[in-house]
Amino acid sequence: MKYFFRNDYSFGAHPKVMDAVCAANLEGNIGYGDDKYTARAKDRIREVCGCPDAMVEFVTGGTQANVLTCAFLLKPWEAAICPHSGHLNGHEVGAFEATGHKILTVEADAAGKIAPEQLVPLLKLHEDVHLTKPGLVYISNATENGAVYTKAELTALYDFCRKNGLLLFVDGARLGCALASDANDMTLPEFAHLCDAFYIGGTKNGTMFGEALVITRPELTEGFFRMKKRLLAVMEKGWIQGVQFLTLFEDDLYFKMGRQANEMAARLQKGLKAKGWQLWVESPTNQVFAVVPNSIKPQIDAVCEYEDWCPYDETHTVVRFVACFHTSEADVDGLLAALPDLH
To answer: What angle do CA 213, 140, 244 make, to 5 degrees?
Structure first.
């Protein structure tokens, strides 16, 4: 038997989401997001975010959300500041830069976070009018290394952005796990009021596909749908996204799934440590990073789907295991029993 810990989108969708889509499947709905489900889902998201005037739009995936939002919010001569490990920079094959904008990277810490003081030299350098002008800061919550921004950290970053004419955009592909984490000290409304735009990731937390983009400041939203259409992000059967996201925010389902993924990752992380495995970082969310000898990788390959994250040294590799809404205690315990001890 092989266990699936490669990512948090190896399984289709939570049964409640599938049931809701099936129930609406043949009833007939208007396309392009002009349907009753999408309208109700947008209202519900504004409600749970505490942002009654926010713009809410649905797109199909994280890269699409990142590229569309950053390209829309920036003027043609402006650039996005991004942690060197950020998804916009590291995993999207230049998709954002293909829109004509530059990425200015800063070194993230081991957790994948950046802090305001790191941005000061970059802003000073780019006062030169012959260089691109930083216009937006991109971060992820949870980060690519599984960490969570605290309220104090996000407040400091947002205050800095507002004082320096920058917008703050948060990649929320794993926002459910971030907000459900024991390391988190923010509510969703508190989080929503500490950035200019963010998205609520569904693809990695229980939907078949889809992200809910929220731009919290109405003055930033004029013309967004045209930009969405121009960048090929308008879905004809948009009502499917509306149905899915409406279901996510019934009975706290979105956060229950995030907690489930986090708890299973914590169980795996604890079990690996008990077996003598070295952790690369301690993750409070649904990603687990371990340093393994290359010599045992064939044994891991035989029992588990996982991901090689990065080289550690000449004889070791950092590997990543990811839990999701469908991961069970039996999955974790079965994997742990099948993996070798490294004491």
So the answer is: 35
CB neighbour list of residue 48: distance below 8 Å, 6 or more residues apart: 188, 189, 249
* Nearest partner of 191 among 98, 255, 116, 144, judged by Cα: 255
- Element of type H or E holding 288: strand 287-293
| pLDDT, tens digit, 9 for 90 and up, residues 303-320 | 999 999 999 999 999 999
Label the pairing between strands 304-305 and 3-4: parallel
Structure tokens at 315: 């004889």
User: Pick from 8, 14, 31: which is nearest to 240 by CA?
Assistant: 31
Which H helix or E strand runs over 22?
A: helix 15-24
Burial class (CB in 10 A: 0-12, 13-18, 19+), 314: exposed
What is the tally of helices (H) and strands (E) in the chain? 13, 13
CA–CA distance, 318 with 163 (Å, rounded to integer): 39
* CATH number of the structural domain 15-248: 3.40.640.10
- Please tell me the distance from the alpha carbon of residue 161 to that of residue 154, in angstroms, as a whole number: 10
d(CA 236, CA 29): 11
* pLDDT tens track for 149-170: 999 999 999 999 999 999 999 9
Q: What angle do CA 258, 88, 173 make, to 5 degrees?
A: 15
Please say whether the beta carbons of 89 and 113 come within 8 A.
Answer: no
Strand order in the sheet with 78-83: 55-59, 211-215, 197-201, 167-171, 133-140, 78-83, 103-106
d(CA 120, CA 86): 19
Topology adopted by domain 3-9+260-338: Aspartate Aminotransferase, domain 1 (3.90.1150)
What is the DSSP-derived secondary structure letter of residue 293?
Answer: E
Domain residue extents for the chain: 3-9+260-338, 15-248
